[in-house]
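Hello, quick one for you while I still have it in my head. No rush at all, and the record is pasted right below.
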Amino acid sequence: MDNLKALILAAGRGERMRPLTDHTPKPLLPVHGRPLIEWHLLALARDGVREVVINTAWLEAQFPATLGDGSRFGLRIHYSMEGRDHGGALETAGGIAKALPWLGECFWVVSGDIFAPDFRFDAARAQAFAAGSRLAHLWLVPNPPYHPRGDFGIGADGLGLSEPPQTVPRHTYSNLALMRAELCRHLPVGRPAALGPLLHEAMRRRQISVEMYTGRWENVGTPAQWEALSAPLPFGTAPPPEDRT
Protein backbone atom coordinates (compact mmCIF):
# COMPACT_ATOMS: atom_id res chain seq x y z
CA MET A 1 0.00 0.00 0.00
CA ASP A 2 1.40 3.38 -1.00
CA ASN A 3 1.95 5.91 1.76
CA LEU A 4 1.42 9.66 1.53
CA LYS A 5 4.11 12.28 1.13
CA ALA A 6 5.39 14.05 4.24
CA LEU A 7 6.37 17.56 5.34
CA ILE A 8 9.06 18.01 7.98
CA LEU A 9 8.93 21.46 9.55
CA ALA A 10 12.48 22.72 10.01
CA ALA A 11 12.44 26.47 9.35
CA GLY A 12 12.51 27.87 12.89
CA ARG A 13 15.30 29.90 14.42
CA GLY A 14 15.37 27.99 17.72
CA GLU A 15 15.94 31.07 19.90
CA ARG A 16 15.62 29.15 23.18
CA MET A 17 18.31 26.72 21.99
CA ARG A 18 20.99 29.38 21.64
CA PRO A 19 23.96 29.24 21.59
CA LEU A 20 23.63 25.73 20.11
CA THR A 21 21.56 27.02 17.21
CA ASP A 22 23.74 30.03 16.44
CA HIS A 23 25.67 27.89 13.97
CA THR A 24 23.54 24.74 13.54
CA PRO A 25 19.79 24.52 12.82
CA LYS A 26 18.01 22.75 15.65
CA PRO A 27 16.86 19.74 13.55
CA LEU A 28 20.49 19.09 12.58
CA LEU A 29 21.75 18.85 16.18
CA PRO A 30 22.93 15.29 16.89
CA VAL A 31 20.83 12.91 19.00
CA HIS A 32 22.12 9.39 19.61
CA GLY A 33 24.66 9.56 16.84
CA ARG A 34 22.68 11.22 14.05
CA PRO A 35 21.01 14.58 13.33
CA LEU A 36 17.59 14.77 14.98
CA ILE A 37 15.82 15.13 11.63
CA GLU A 38 17.37 11.90 10.35
CA TRP A 39 15.31 9.91 12.86
CA HIS A 40 12.20 11.15 11.03
CA LEU A 41 13.65 10.50 7.59
CA LEU A 42 14.56 6.92 8.46
CA ALA A 43 11.18 6.27 10.07
CA LEU A 44 9.33 7.71 7.07
CA ALA A 45 11.33 5.56 4.67
CA ARG A 46 10.79 2.47 6.86
CA ASP A 47 7.03 3.03 6.73
CA GLY A 48 6.81 3.43 2.97
CA VAL A 49 6.93 7.19 2.48
CA ARG A 50 8.95 7.97 -0.64
CA GLU A 51 8.77 11.77 -1.00
CA VAL A 52 9.48 14.32 1.72
CA VAL A 53 9.39 18.11 1.73
CA ILE A 54 11.57 19.92 4.29
CA ASN A 55 10.82 23.59 4.81
CA THR A 56 13.85 25.67 5.77
CA ALA A 57 14.82 29.24 6.64
CA TRP A 58 17.45 29.58 9.38
CA LEU A 59 20.89 28.47 8.11
CA GLU A 60 18.95 26.63 5.42
CA ALA A 61 21.93 25.83 3.18
CA GLN A 62 23.05 23.31 5.82
CA PHE A 63 20.06 21.05 5.16
CA PRO A 64 20.81 19.99 1.57
CA ALA A 65 24.52 19.97 2.41
CA THR A 66 23.86 17.48 5.24
CA LEU A 67 20.94 15.44 3.90
CA GLY A 68 21.43 15.61 0.15
CA ASP A 69 18.63 14.56 -2.16
CA GLY A 70 17.41 11.88 0.23
CA SER A 71 18.56 8.92 -1.83
CA ARG A 72 20.72 7.47 0.96
CA PHE A 73 17.56 7.21 3.09
CA GLY A 74 15.48 5.71 0.28
CA LEU A 75 13.65 9.02 -0.15
CA ARG A 76 13.31 11.93 -2.53
CA ILE A 77 13.69 15.22 -0.63
CA HIS A 78 12.46 18.58 -1.86
CA TYR A 79 13.52 21.71 0.03
CA SER A 80 10.98 24.52 0.44
CA MET A 81 13.40 27.38 1.09
CA GLU A 82 11.55 30.15 2.89
CA GLY A 83 14.67 32.12 3.70
CA ARG A 84 15.80 32.27 0.09
CA ASP A 85 12.36 32.95 -1.34
CA HIS A 86 10.76 35.13 1.35
CA GLY A 87 13.53 36.40 3.62
CA GLY A 88 12.66 34.29 6.64
CA ALA A 89 10.43 31.62 8.18
CA LEU A 90 6.72 31.72 7.37
CA GLU A 91 5.53 30.08 10.63
CA THR A 92 3.84 26.68 10.55
CA ALA A 93 0.70 27.33 8.48
CA GLY A 94 2.55 29.67 6.14
CA GLY A 95 5.20 27.01 5.64
CA ILE A 96 2.56 24.39 4.87
CA ALA A 97 0.86 26.71 2.38
CA LYS A 98 4.12 27.26 0.51
CA ALA A 99 4.87 23.53 0.39
CA LEU A 100 1.43 22.43 -0.88
CA PRO A 101 2.41 22.14 -4.57
CA TRP A 102 4.77 19.28 -3.66
CA LEU A 103 2.53 17.51 -1.13
CA GLY A 104 -0.75 16.55 -2.78
CA GLU A 105 -4.20 16.64 -1.18
CA CYS A 106 -3.28 14.75 2.03
CA PHE A 107 0.10 14.37 3.74
CA TRP A 108 1.97 13.70 6.96
CA VAL A 109 3.29 16.64 9.01
CA VAL A 110 6.00 16.32 11.65
CA SER A 111 8.17 18.92 13.34
CA GLY A 112 11.89 18.49 12.82
CA ASP A 113 12.66 19.28 16.46
CA ILE A 114 10.75 16.48 18.17
CA PHE A 115 12.04 13.02 18.99
CA ALA A 116 9.44 10.26 18.62
CA PRO A 117 11.31 7.04 17.78
CA ASP A 118 8.30 4.77 18.38
CA PHE A 119 5.88 6.59 16.08
CA ARG A 120 4.74 4.74 12.96
CA PHE A 121 3.80 6.62 9.80
CA ASP A 122 1.28 3.90 9.08
CA ALA A 123 0.22 3.73 5.43
CA ALA A 124 -3.15 2.18 6.24
CA ARG A 125 -3.96 5.02 8.65
CA ALA A 126 -2.87 7.53 6.04
CA GLN A 127 -5.07 6.00 3.33
CA ALA A 128 -8.06 5.85 5.68
CA PHE A 129 -7.59 9.51 6.49
CA ALA A 130 -7.32 10.41 2.79
CA ALA A 131 -10.56 8.53 2.09
CA GLY A 132 -12.42 10.56 4.72
CA SER A 133 -13.30 14.24 5.01
CA ARG A 134 -11.52 15.47 8.14
CA LEU A 135 -9.14 18.40 7.69
CA ALA A 136 -6.59 16.90 10.06
CA HIS A 137 -5.89 14.05 12.46
CA LEU A 138 -3.64 15.02 15.37
CA TRP A 139 -1.71 12.92 17.85
CA LEU A 140 -1.69 14.33 21.38
CA VAL A 141 0.68 13.58 24.25
CA PRO A 142 0.49 14.01 28.04
CA ASN A 143 1.28 17.57 29.02
CA PRO A 144 5.01 18.09 29.64
CA PRO A 145 6.09 20.16 32.65
CA TYR A 146 6.73 23.27 30.53
CA HIS A 147 3.21 23.17 29.01
CA PRO A 148 0.91 22.10 31.86
CA ARG A 149 -2.30 23.56 30.43
CA GLY A 150 -2.15 21.54 27.22
CA ASP A 151 -3.76 22.43 23.90
CA PHE A 152 -6.85 20.36 23.06
CA GLY A 153 -9.36 17.97 24.55
CA ILE A 154 -10.67 14.71 23.13
CA GLY A 155 -14.41 14.34 22.67
CA ALA A 156 -16.27 11.07 23.24
CA ASP A 157 -16.55 10.80 19.46
CA GLY A 158 -12.78 11.13 18.96
CA LEU A 159 -12.99 14.67 17.64
CA GLY A 160 -10.73 17.42 18.92
CA LEU A 161 -12.13 19.95 21.39
CA SER A 162 -10.78 23.48 21.09
CA GLU A 163 -12.22 24.56 24.45
CA PRO A 164 -13.13 21.41 26.38
CA PRO A 165 -15.28 21.62 29.51
CA GLN A 166 -13.44 21.52 32.81
CA THR A 167 -14.35 17.86 33.23
CA VAL A 168 -12.41 16.95 30.07
CA PRO A 169 -8.59 17.03 30.33
CA ARG A 170 -6.51 18.94 27.84
CA HIS A 171 -3.50 17.36 26.17
CA THR A 172 -0.54 18.72 24.20
CA TYR A 173 -0.32 18.60 20.43
CA SER A 174 2.64 16.37 19.60
CA ASN A 175 3.47 18.02 16.25
CA LEU A 176 2.63 14.72 14.54
CA ALA A 177 -0.36 14.85 12.21
CA LEU A 178 -2.11 13.92 9.02
CA MET A 179 -3.44 16.98 7.19
CA ARG A 180 -5.53 17.89 4.20
CA ALA A 181 -4.40 20.69 1.88
CA GLU A 182 -7.75 22.42 2.36
CA LEU A 183 -6.72 23.44 5.87
CA CYS A 184 -4.10 25.90 4.57
CA ARG A 185 -4.87 26.32 0.86
CA HIS A 186 -6.61 29.65 1.37
CA LEU A 187 -3.50 31.29 2.86
CA PRO A 188 -1.45 33.69 0.69
CA VAL A 189 1.84 32.05 -0.24
CA GLY A 190 4.82 33.85 1.25
CA ARG A 191 2.97 35.43 4.17
CA PRO A 192 3.67 34.17 7.72
CA ALA A 193 0.69 32.43 9.34
CA ALA A 194 0.28 30.42 12.54
CA LEU A 195 -1.31 26.98 12.55
CA GLY A 196 -2.96 27.16 15.98
CA PRO A 197 -5.88 29.44 15.02
CA LEU A 198 -6.69 27.23 12.01
CA LEU A 199 -6.76 24.12 14.19
CA HIS A 200 -8.99 25.75 16.81
CA GLU A 201 -11.43 26.99 14.17
CA ALA A 202 -11.57 23.62 12.41
CA MET A 203 -12.18 21.89 15.74
CA ARG A 204 -15.09 24.20 16.42
CA ARG A 205 -16.49 23.02 13.06
CA ARG A 206 -15.91 19.36 14.10
CA GLN A 207 -13.42 18.78 11.28
CA ILE A 208 -10.41 17.44 13.21
CA SER A 209 -10.01 14.03 14.84
CA VAL A 210 -7.44 13.36 17.56
CA GLU A 211 -5.93 10.50 19.53
CA MET A 212 -3.35 10.01 22.25
CA TYR A 213 0.20 8.96 21.39
CA THR A 214 1.82 6.96 24.17
CA GLY A 215 5.26 6.24 22.70
CA ARG A 216 8.45 8.05 23.68
CA TRP A 217 8.19 11.72 22.75
CA GLU A 218 10.41 14.70 23.48
CA ASN A 219 10.21 18.28 22.30
CA VAL A 220 13.74 19.64 21.98
CA GLY A 221 13.22 23.22 23.10
CA THR A 222 16.17 24.13 25.33
CA PRO A 223 19.84 23.12 25.66
CA ALA A 224 18.95 21.27 28.88
CA GLN A 225 16.29 19.24 27.04
CA TRP A 226 18.75 18.45 24.27
CA GLU A 227 21.38 17.31 26.78
CA ALA A 228 18.85 15.08 28.56
CA LEU A 229 17.73 13.62 25.25
CA SER A 230 21.32 12.91 24.27
CA ALA A 231 21.76 10.62 27.29
CA PRO A 232 21.98 6.87 26.59
CA LEU A 233 18.78 5.30 25.27
CA PRO A 234 16.77 3.47 27.94
CA PHE A 235 16.68 -0.29 27.96
CA GLY A 236 14.13 -1.60 25.47
CA THR A 237 14.32 1.34 23.07
CA ALA A 238 15.07 0.20 19.54
CA PRO A 239 18.38 1.39 18.10
CA PRO A 240 18.22 3.75 15.14
CA PRO A 241 17.59 2.00 11.82
CA GLU A 242 20.43 1.74 9.35
CA ASP A 243 20.80 4.13 6.45
CA ARG A 244 19.68 2.85 3.08
CA THR A 245 22.37 2.82 0.46
